Amino acid sequence: MTTIVAYQPGAAGLEALRLGAYFARSRDSRLLVTMVMETQSAPTVARVDFQYNSLLRQQLMNHLEEAQQDVPGDVHAEYRVHDARSVPSGLVELAESESAYVIVVGNASRGVLGRISLGSTTNHLVHSSPVPIALAPRGFRTTQQDRISRVTAAYGGEAGKSGLVVAAAGICEEMNAELRLASFSLQPRNVPTTDLEARSKARASITAAVRESAEPVLAEVRSLPNAPKVGETVVGFGEEWADAIEHVDWTGGDVLVVGSSDMGPGHRVFLGSTGMRIVHESPVPVIVLPGEAVETLVERAEEA
């Protein structure tokens, strides 16, 4: 299997390289670093266009040559300029032709440090790609010793029905990582001091209900041929999404898995408003799974 990195010069490209190497090392996969050269839909014989395209191609190849210096030596990497009508369509074409299991993309140039910010290409991909998309928080760093140790599935009532949890377990199997479920609950602002005890009881009740709801799908996970270790199901509480996500404990080896909305066309990725908020506020790398990838991961997990 192949990990594809959509490279671009600058900090965003460096973060994508780091995350791509992180995935490739954790899954023992090949790393393919690419830049897409946008081509005209109809060929032209104009000499000026030929010269421009030649210069552009050489520039992209120079960027990829520079990228080689930032890829860790323990990861097998290849570098390629891919021709396509657009960057998003080119990345999907390449991912499908190379049987890639994920496309890794960088942040927008102006984002909050430690959080994920989507640029135009990334935003297009997370709303249209049939291949999983991985994103890193701005400023993401790893070492050659770092590997993914825990996969957290963003869990709601529909997550079990959609297969997301079992798909996340499949990722755990392939990366030898622990599975954890996390749910997020928004709480009202300005709770009076006299109501703090009641709020504490309400949180305990919500947590118990989430864990009870998750137990059937976790039982399904435990019955898999190569079932991963299953950690505690957690619930993050807060007045805002950022607070609720931050309320959950995160470590250096974590990645968060988010499922696509059922509103997506076919089996492609389509993030609803809740999924988008979770992605934006995540302090750890995120994998967005389209329906087709969920089905594939579930099949592999059940047949392992």
From TrEMBL:
Residues of the UspA domain: 4-135, 152-290
Q: Name one Pfam family in it.
A: Usp
The record's section on Gene3D superfamilies has: HUPs (3.40.50.620)
What span is annotated as the signal peptide, if there is one? none
Superkingdom of the organism of origin = Bacteria
Stored InterPro entries: Rossmann-like_a/b/a_fold, Universal_stress_UspA, UspA
Cross-referenced PANTHER family? ADENINE NUCLEOTIDE ALPHA HYDROLASES-LIKE SUPERFAMILY PROTEIN, USPA DOMAIN-CONTAINING PROTEIN
Family membership, please give it: Belongs to the universal stress protein A family.
- The protein, known as: Nucleotide-binding universal stress UspA family protein
